């Protein structure tokens, strides 16, 4: 991982794409309430990951940021699977 700045950008882009995808699918399938729930979950995930990045009480920063990156991948995949299940 190159920097914290790039990790924040990755989180923003990935979860932004998930939100956009959720909006598109919920409109096409006419299930706005289910889409809104997934969007809310994506926003909560964003807030959680950014707060983890901003945590200053970390001993091993490299491992901490690597774990955040892996957590982003897992949560984004789970959200996309929920969207595909609409």
Tell me the count of domains: 1
Q: What helical percentage do the residues reach?
A: over 70%
Question: Mean pLDDT, nearest integer?
Answer: 91
Question: What are the low-pLDDT stretches, counting only 5+ consecutive residues below 50?
Answer: none
Order of helices and strands: HHH
Radius of gyration: 14 Å
How many beta-strand segments?
0
What is the structural class? mainly alpha
Total of helices: 3
Q: Tell me, what's the shape? A: elongated
Report the end-to-end length measured between terminal Cα atoms.
34 Å
Proportion of beta-strand residues = under 5%
For the sheet with most strands, the description reads: none
If you had to describe this structure to a student in words, what would you say it looks like?
The structure is a single chain. With 86 residues, the protein is mainly α. It has one domain. It is built from 3 helices and no strands. The chain is elongated. The model has no long low-confidence stretch (mean pLDDT 91).
Which characteristics define this entry?
86 residues; mainly alpha; elongated
Fold topology:
Elements: H1 4-28, H2 32-53, H3 61-84
Helix pairs in contact: 1-2, 1-3, 2-3
Briefly say what this structure is.
The protein has 86 residues and is mostly helical.
